[in-house]
Design a protein that fits this description.
Oligomer: heterodimer
Strand order of the largest sheet of chain A: 6-7-8-3-9-10
Strand order of the largest sheet of chain B: 1-2-3-4
Structural class of chain B: alpha/beta
Number of domains of chain B: 2
Largest sheet of chain B: 4 strands, mixed
Radius of gyration of chain B: 35 Å
Distance between the termini of chain A: 26 Å
CATH superfamily of the largest domain in chain A: P-loop containing nucleotide triphosphate hydrolases
Radius of gyration of chain A: 18 Å
Number of strands of chain A: 10
Number of domains of chain A: 2
Helix content of chain B: over 70%
CATH topology of the largest domain in chain A: Rossmann fold
Largest sheet of chain A: 6 strands, mixed
Helix content of chain A: 40-55%
CATH class of the largest domain in chain A: Alpha Beta
CATH architecture of the largest domain in chain A: 3-Layer(aba) Sandwich
Distance between the termini of chain B: 87 Å
Structural class of chain A: alpha/beta
C-alpha cells in the first residue's frame, strides 16, 4: 500500500453536551480520492475542519504527512496549511476581488513574486480548471455556480498542493456541470498526482471519482473501497447506498467502471 | 544553483537542477532572467539533475523555453520531458491562449470618458434615489386607505431599537453638551456681571438647535448605519428578492417600518435630550453660579418664547425621515460584494449627517424669514 497522508486516530469532538465524534479513526493514502459521507449533522464538516487544523479536537491525534497537527503552534500550523488546498461549499471566493486576484492572493501572501509571474501562474491555473481566460478579470458575483466552483478549485491549487480538500464540490450544480466537475477533478488528480479528500452527498460523484469511502455512523467512521461500502450490511449505510435515489447512481457507476 | 547554462557554438545546454518549487520561484525567475540575450540556434534542456518540480516551477521553465522558441531557437529536451511540462503544454494549447492583464497605456481621451461615466452614474443614482422616494410616498399614501400596509409589529420593534435603546447615549451627550455650553458661557458672561444670561444661552441653544441636531447626528450614526447594513445583508442573501417573489413589497416590509419608526422615535428622543440638557444646565448654574433651581426655572420660563420648544421639535421628524430614507436607500443599493456593503453603509452615515445639517440650515433661514 502507498504512503499514508492523513492518519486520524481516536478523535473526540464535542460541543457542550453533544458528542459529534467519539473515537473516530480515518486513513487516507497517497494518490487516492477519499470520500467522506454521512447524514446531515453527523459531523462531516467538523471532521474536515479538525483535519484542516481549524478546530482542535477534545482528544485524539490528526497526522498530516506524519506530523501531529493537534500539538502544533500557530506558526507551525501556518506552514502545514501552506501544503494543502481547500475549497469550501459555497466557493468562499473573496467577493471584492477578481478571480485573478483571488488566485494570486495565496501566492503573494507566501512568496515574493513579481506581477508577471503571478499573472502567468494565475492564467495557467484558470486554464487548468477549464475556465475561459475572460473569467480572470471577473468578480465572483459575475460568475455562474459552476464557474465559482472551478474558480475556487483554481485558488485552492494556487500553491501547488499535493493534498486537496473539497467540501461538497458538486452541490448546487446541474448534472452536466457536476459531471464536468467530476471529470476535471479526475484529470487534475491524475496529472498533478493529487491526494483528494472530499465531503459529498453526490452519489454520482462518489461512484465516478472515489477510490475509497468513509461513512460516519454513530460518531465513528467505517471506511472501505466503494464496492466494499456498497456491500456493507450496516443499516444506515445500506439505506444510503440502496435507497431509491441511490439505485440509479449505483447502476450507472457500475456501468462506468465496467466500461 | 537552479540553472547551469553552457554555450558551445550555436548550442546552449541548460542543465536544470535542484528543487524547482513555488517557494524557490523568485530565485528561479532571477536565474532565468540572466538567460536574456543569449544568441544561439539550439537550446538543449537537460532535466536529469532535477530533484523536484512542481507546477509553478514547470510553468517558469515552460514560459522561458516558449519565449526562446518564439525568438527562433530550436528547443530539445534531454531525457524525458517532465510530465508537468507536458500537462502545462496541453492545458495552454487546448484552452485559448490566456490573455495577460490589459496593458494600461497613456490615453488622453480617458479623463473625458471617465468624467462622462461619472456624470451618467450620478444621473442614474439621482434617478434611483428619486424613484425610491416615490415608492416610499406611494406606499405611505396607500396606507391611509388600507392601514394594514403598515406593519405594526415591525414598526414597534424599530421604535424600540432606534428610540429606547438610544436613550442612554442621547441623554449623556445632551447632558455633557449643555454643561459645556453653560460653563463656557458662564466664563464669558461673568466678566460683564451677566451670569443670569447663561440660563438663556442654555435654554435657547438646547431647545432650538442643539437638542435636536445632536440627537439626529447620534441617531444617524447609530440607526442610519444599522438600516443600511441590515438591508444590505438581506440584499446579498437574496432575501429582498425572496420578498419580491413571495409577492410582498420590500419597501412596505423593510423600509416603511424603519422610516415611520424613526419618525416617531426621533421627536421623543429630542424631548428627552431637551429635558436632560436643561437639567444639566441647571445643575451647572447651581454649582458654579449659585443660581438656585427655583430661580433657574423661572428664568427658563422668561427666556423662551411660546415657539422656542416647537421650533426645535418640528425639525425632528424631518431629520428622522432623511436619516431613514438615506439609510434604507443605500442598503437597497448593495449588490454583489461585502465591500459594497461597507462602502454604502459609510455613505449612508456621511450623507444622512450632511443632509441633517443642510436641512437645519434651511430651517434656520426659514424661521428667520418667518420671524420666529
Amino acid at each position: 500500500m502507498s504512503r499514508g497522508v492523513i492518519e486520524v486516530r481516536g478523535i473526540v469532538n464535542r460541543f457542550g453536551m453533544q458528542v459529534v465524534h467519539d473515537g473516530l479513526d480515518m486513513d487516507v493514502f497517497e494518490g487516492e480520492v477519499f470520500g467522506i459521507v454521512g447524514g446531515s449533522g453527523s459531523g462531516k464538516s467538523v471532521l474536515m475542519r479538525t483535519i484542516l487544523g481549524l478546530q482542535r479536537p477534545a482528544a485524539g491525534t490528526v497526522k498530516l504527512y506524519g506530523r501531529d497537527i493537534t500539538t502544533l503552534s500557530e506558526q507551525e500550523l501556518r506552514h502545514v496549511k501552506r501544503g494543502y488546498g481547500v475549497t469550501f461549499q459555497h466557493g468562499a471566493l473573496f467577493s471584492s476581488l477578481t478571480v485573478r486576484q483571488n488566485i494570486e492572493l495565496p501566492m503573494a501572501e507566501f512568496f515574493q513574486l513579481d506581477k508577471a509571474t503571478l499573472d502567468g501562474l494565475a492564467a495557467l491555473k484558470v486554464a487548468m480548471v477549464g475556465l475561459p481566460a475572460e473569467a480572470l478579470d471577473k468578480y465572483p458575483a459575475q460568475l455562474s455556480g459552476g464557474m465559482i466552483k472551478r474558480a475556487a478549485l483554481a485558488r485552492s491549487l494556487a500553491l501547488d498542493p499535493k493534498l486537496l480538500f473539497l467540501d461538497e464540490p458538486t452541490a448546487g450544480l446541474d448534472p452536466i456541470a457536476a459531471a464536468g466537475f467530476d471529470e476535471l477533478l479526475l484529470d487534475l488528480q491524475r496529472n498533478l498526482e493529487l491526494t483528494v479528500v472530499m465531503v459529498t452527498h453526490d452519489l454520482d460523484t462518489i461512484f465516478r471519482t472515489c477510490n475509497r469511502v468513509g461513512v460516519i455512523v454513530e460518531r465513528r467512521m467505517t471506511s472501505d473501497t466503494v464496492e466494499g461500502i456498497v456491500a456493507n450490511p450496516q443499516p444506515w449505510i445500506r439505506e444510503y447506498f440502496h435507497g431509491p435515489r441511490a439505485r440509479a447512481a449505483t447502476q450507472a457507476g457500475a456501468a462506468d467502471r465496467g466500461a | 544553483m537552479f540553472l547551469d547554462p553552457h554555450q558551445q557554438g550555436g548550442v546552449v545546454t541548460l542543465r536544470v537542477s535542484g528543487r524547482w518549487l513555488i517557494e524557490n520561484l523568485a530565485a528561479i525567475e532571477l536565474e532565468l532572467g540572466r538567460l536574456d540575450g543569449i544568441q544561439a540556434q539550439t537550446l538543449v534542456i537537460d532535466t536529469t539533475g532535477l530533484e523536484e518540480l512542481d507546477l509553478s516551477g514547470a510553468w517558469a521553465l515552460f514560459e522561458r523555453v516558449r519565449r526562446f522558441e518564439q525568438a527562433g531557437l530550436k528547443a530539445e529536451w534531454r531525457g524525458r520531458t517532465p510530465d508537468q511540462i507536458r500537462f502545462i503544454e496541453h492545458t495552454l494549447t487546448v484552452s485559448k491562449r490566456p490573455v495577460a492583464a490589459a496593458e494600461v497605456g497613456l490615453d488622453l481621451a480617458e479623463p473625458v470618458r471617465s468624467l462622462g461615466r461619472w456624470a451618467v452614474t450620478q444621473a442614474a443614482s439621482a434617478k434611483i434615489s428619486l424613484a425610491f422616494l416615490g415608492r416610499i410616498c406611494s406606499v405611505l399614501g396607500s396606507a391611509f386607505t388600507s392601514p394594514k400596509r403598515v406593519r405594526l409589529a415591525a414598526l414597534v420593534r424599530h421604535v424600540i431599537e432606534t428610540g429606547m435603546h438610544a436613550v442612554p447615549i442621547v441623554s449623556l451627550i445632551a447632558f455633557l453638551i449643555s454643561v459645556i455650553i453653560a460653563y463656557m458661557g458662564a466664563n464669558e458672561l461673568r466678566r460683564f456681571g451677566a451670569e443670569i444670561f447663561v440660563v438663556d444661552l442654555v435654554t435657547i441653544g438646547v431647545l432650538r438647535e442643539l437638542g435636536v441636531l445632536l440627537t439626529a447626528i447620534i441617531v444617524a450614526g447609530r440607526s442610519g448605519s444599522a438600516f443600511a447594513a441590515e438591508i444590505g445583508v438581506m440584499k446579498l442573501n437574496e432575501e429582498v428578492d425572496a420578498l419580491h417573489a413571495i409577492g410582498t413589497n420590500p419597501v412596505e416590509v423593510l423600509v416603511i417600518p424603519r422610516v415611520l419608526g424613526l419618525v416617531i422615535a426621533l421627536p421623543l428622543l429630542t424631548v428627552i435630550a431637551d429635558a436632560v440638557g436643561l437639567t444639566g444646565g441647571g445643575l451647572l448654574c447651581y454649582y458654579l453660579l449659585d443660581i438656585p433651581p427655583a430661580q433657574y426655572l423661572a428664568r427658563v420660563q422668561e427666556s423662551i418664547a411660546p415657539t422656542t420648544f416647537w421650533v426645535g421639535i418640528i425639525k425632528a421628524p424631518v431629520f428622522a425621515f432623511l436619516i431613514a430614507y438615506i439609510g434604507t436607500l443605500r442598503g437597497m443599493q448593495v449588490r454583489e460584494s461585502s465591500r459594497e456593503l461597507g462602502r454604502l453603509t459609510t455613505v449612508a452615515v456621511v450623507q444622512s449627517i450632511f443632509l441633517v445639517i443642510l436641512a437645519d440650515a434651511l430651517f434656520a433661514v426659514l424661521f428667520l424669514e418667518l420671524d420666529i
